[in-house]
TrEMBL record:
Gene3D superfamilies: 2.60.120.200, 2.80.10.50. Residues 1-31 form the signal peptide. PANTHER family: ALPHA-L-ARABINOFURANOSIDASE B (PTHR39447:SF2). InterPro entries: A-L-arabinofuranosidase_B_cat, ABFB, AbfB_ABD, AbfB_ABD_sf, ConA-like_dom_sf, TAT_signal. The keyword Transmembrane does not apply. This is Alpha-L-arabinofuranosidase B. Residues 36-345 form the Alpha-L-arabinofuranosidase B catalytic domain. It comes from Streptacidiphilus alkalitolerans. It holds the Pfam family ArabFuran-catal. CDD domains: beta-trefoil_ABD_ABFB (cd23399). Residues 366-507 form the Alpha-L-arabinofuranosidase B arabinose-binding domain. Transmembrane segments: none annotated. Keywords: Glycoprotein, Glycosidase, Hydrolase, Signal.
């Protein structure tokens, strides 16, 4: 077969897959049997590593996604799927980890090449082994099913220095990952991708990975960040030049698709909202105009959450990602993005009530815990503390107004939400010392972060749960009738693991006022 004819057939296969998902020409059962790696394979750029704690990345995959270890007895359990080609069996993790804590010990490779990720060892920049991720710190939903991401604070990281089929030298590759756009920092370096096999800095061009965060030491884009950049060792590149590149914008979708691909004197940055819409290309062109990056000297290890030399000052959350053999076309990646959109990360919840999280709408937030199903979040006029209390049709107009909130796009992240009091304009729900208060906006970055909450499907399967934008392990929770941002277990009384899932789940109810 001629090269031209093969290229045309490959493009046609990708287009057919994309059209089937976008236009609905494939049946629901057929769509469920297509994963991102099926799309890459049909285009001639197959996955050589495929990692996810949330779902299968091949339509036929029916193995384990990851392994957890519980603290109570140090035993481990593989977490698999509800069905072949489907979604994580998170209930199996919940049962295994009940009453104790768990960490993620292995993230399995679905490609069949054995490129799983385990605890990162020491490296040139930092001692090790690195910490392992708390298995319950990043709850989410995918296609309406409960799942968990990989929550990585500073000091945590995963690696595989002995891989099979990952690109080396100047050979072409592609990669994508889905990250939490509300959980980033300016440490070095929250990466996923190709790195050195000795865990040391071996010079310019010895790695090629997706970076996501706000560090500005080597390169950065427009706005305050986070930015999707390429970590090519000794440089985070946002374009052809070192330092600032205006065309690489801040990207902070709650679920962010981030893409880096590279070949012979060619590479690109692409990104988009993993929940909806297409991909944008922020750079596509020649390698950086700095010595050492053309040709590349990639070594083929795989890292997650750390830099190539085990720099581990970064933070982020990972849900899924793959690495390919060959340089994927934009059309292939667009079809993958359509597949990602179709599984609805985070869900499109209605809260089990008739309220709405559409900016500009009004709602009331109703507790779901058995003790308190007539209680709503409201502010106390006496001291501006935020509590839950019963509200009924016979309640006073003031009480109804105190339990009604105006929804705004998140003050610090437009993919999330902020809540303004309906009867005290300019006053917002805001946490201070973990307790919720009603406070007037002062326009500072800290206030905006404290007043921003990221919705996801309810932790107990009802309604919605609201993650703090600047403390991602903490959620709006009522405890002794007072509202806090609380973690699932901790030193504070309001962090109690008892009824945490119920206490952090809220129905979006018809506004009382």
């Amino acid at each position: 077969m001629s090269r031209t004819k093969r290229s045309l057939l490959t493009a046609g296969a990708v287009l057919a897959l994309a059209c089937g998902m976008l236009a609905g020409t494939a049946s629901t059962s057929q769509a469920a049997q297509q994963g991102p790696c099926d799309i890459y394979a049909a285009a001639g750029t197959p996955c050589v590593a495929a990692h996810s704690t949330t779902r299968a990345l091949y339509g036929a995959y029916n193995g384990s996604l990851y392994q957890v270890r519980r603290a109570s007895d140090n035993t481990t359990k593989d977490i698999g799927l509800l069905a072949a080609g489907g979604y994580a069996n998170a209930a199996a993790q919940d049962s295994f980890c009940a009453g104790t804590s768990c960490v993620i010990t292995v993230i399995y490779d679905q490609s069949g090449r054995g490129n799983g990720l385990t605890q990162a060892p020491a490296g040139g920049a930092a001692s090790g082994p690195d910490n392992l991720a708390n298995a319950t710190a990043a709850p989410t939903t995918v296609a309406g099913h409960e799942a968990y991401g990989v929550y990585i604070p500073a000091g945590t990281g995963y690696r595989n220095n002995h891989t099979n089929g990952i690109a080396t030298g100047d050979n072409p590759e592609g990669m994508y990952a889905i990250f939490d756009g509300s959980h980033t920092n300016g440490g070095c370096c929250f990466d996923y991708g190709n790195a050195e096999t000795d865990s040391h800095d071996d010079g310019n061009g010895t790695m090629e990975a997706i970076y996501f965060g706000t560090i500005k030491v080597w390169g950065y884009g427009s706005g305050a960040g986070p930015w999707v950049m390429a970590d090519m060792e000794n440089g985070l590149y946002s374009g052809v030049n070192a330092g600032y590149n205006a065309n690489d914008p801040t990207v902070n979708y709650r679920y962010t698709t981030a893409i880096i691909k590279g070949g012979a004197n060619q590479w690109a940055i692409r990104a988009g909202n993993a929940q909806s819409g297409g991909l944008s290309t922020y750079y596509s062109g020649a390698r950086p105009n700095v010595s050492g990056y053309n040709p590349m000297k990639k070594q083929g290890a795989i890292i997650l959450g750390i830099g190539g030399d085990n720099s581990k000052g970064s933070a982020g959350t990972f849900y899924e990602g793959v690495m390919t053999s060959g340089y994927p076309s934009d059309a292939t990646e667009n079809a993958v993005q359509a597949n990602i959109n179709a599984v609805a990360y985070g869900g499109t919840t209605t809260g089990g009530g008739s309220g709405s999280l559409t900016p500009g709408s009004r709602l009331s937030l109703k507790a779901t815990t058995a003790c308190c199903t007539s209680d709503y979040i409201r502010h106390d006029d006496a001291d501006n503390n935020v509590v839950i209390s019963p509200i009924t049709a016979s309640s006073s107009a003031t009480d109804k107004g105190d339990a009604t909130w105006i929804v705004h796009a998140g003050l610090s992240n437009s993919a999330c939400v902020s809540f303004e009091s309906a009867n005290q304009p300019g006053q917002y729900l805001r946490h201070q010392n973990y307790q919720l208060h009603l406070s007037a906006s002062d326009g500072t970055a800290l206030f905006n972060q404290d007043a921003t909450f990221c919705p996801q499907a309810g932790n107990n399967g009802q309604g919605d749960s609201f993650q703090s934008a600047n403390y991602p392990t903490r959620y709006l929770r009522h405890y002794s009738y007072t509202v806090y941002i609380a973690s699932n277990g901790g030193s504070n009384a309001f962090d109690s693991a008892t009824s945490w899932n119920d206490d952090t789940s809220w129905l979006l109810a018809t506004p009382w006022s």
